[in-house]
Design a protein that fits this description.
With 290 residues, the protein is of the alpha+beta class. The chain has 14 helices and 6 strands. It has 2 domains: 129 residues, no CATH class; 155 residues, no CATH class. It has a 4-stranded mixed sheet. A two-stranded antiparallel ribbon has the order 1-2. Bound molecules: zinc ion (ZN).
Length: 290
């Protein structure tokens, strides 16, 4: 099926090889992506930089279709790499691959279509991967707001300035373990932070522990099998909260994504916010990539 698909376009070049499977791009696909960038108003402030990244083969459009995308997700990306994969793009350290459906007409899409947002999302993952310290310092306010609100909802926390410090320690540790070359997630880290929150919680001890365990279970399930359905009736009460945090604190509802990664991949929070809200910091961070 793959051979058949890639036999179609003309002037193909192998641009990536995963598990012996070759993936192709072409100059015309590159040119089409550049037109998408030029048409987008949300990419306007970084147009020059994004085009440079495309020309330097650091953003690589790959021919694909929806079957290939699900095939790739299943076959090529082990569960612990799932954090980089978001619908049709992924960031692999210093390269961004954008999977473009062979059958879609890229030109003539509405301005700021999903591809422009996808590029912004993946560019922010690249910032997190290449400039982790800068990323963390720059987006600390949003990360603190997000996780403080999330934990306040889940654990019914009374407000205290001290919670900020526990929350900051939580996402910093997770962030560095996730952005490392060889990511290893330490579940004890998560439980350790939760235990520090205990004394601010209005929940009974057993209730608190249940929430804490359910949270960790979702992360473990998701990492063990990315196709496992983590949205069970038991887990729903946890997984719906990130949506409410986005809505209440950042003013948008991310209907097109599931919010599992938010539980343990802090950069995902900033990348998702960037799709909906761009600030001078967003553009400044991306400009540094070139
Ligand atoms: Zn992402």
């Amino acid at each position: 099926m793959i051979t058949e698909l890639f036999a179609l376009p003309i002037g193909l070049q192998t641009v990536a090889k995963f598990e012996d499977e070759e993936f192709f791009s072409s100059n015309s696909l590159k040119e089409k992506l550049i037109i998408v960038v030029k048409e987008s108003s949300i990419l306007k402030p970084i147009e020059k930089e994004v085009i440079t990244l495309i020309n330097d083969n650091r953003i690589i459009p790959i021919f694909s279709n929806s079957e290939i995308i699900s095939y790739l997700k299943k076959k090529l990306f082990p569960p612990d790499n799932d954090k980089f994969f978001k619908s049709m793009g992924f960031c692999d350290h210093d390269k961004i691959y954008i999977l473009i459906d062979n059958n879609s007409n890229l030109i003539g899409f509405a301005k700021d279509n999903f591809l422009a947002r996808l590029l912004l999302h993946e560019l922010m993952h690249m910032v997190a991967s290449l400039n982790p310290n800068y990323f963390l310092v720059t987006f600390k306010p949003q990360l603190t707001i997000f996780y403080k609100d999330l934990f306040t909802r889940l654990f019914k926390l009374k407000d205290s300035k001290k919670i900020d410090l526990i929350v900051e320690d939580f996402y910093k540790k997770l962030f560095y373990s996730n952005e490392a070359a060889d990511p290893k997630l330490d579940m004890h880290r998560i439980v350790f932070s939760f235990n520090l929150l205990k004394k601010y919680s209005l929940l009974k001890k057993e209730e608190f522990e249940k929430v804490s365990m359910d949270y960790v279970k979702i992360v473990v399930y998701h990492l063990t099998d990315q196709h496992a359905n983590v949205f069970t009736p038991n887990n729903k009460y946890i997984l719906r909260e990130p949506y409410h945090v986005y809505k209440d604190k950042f003013g948008f509802f991310p209907i097109t994504k599931n919010c599992v990664q938010e539980l343990f991949v802090p950069s995902e929070v900033i990348c998702s916010i960037t799709e909906y809200k761009q600030t001078p910091e967003t553009y400044k961070a991306i400009k540094k990539l070139v």
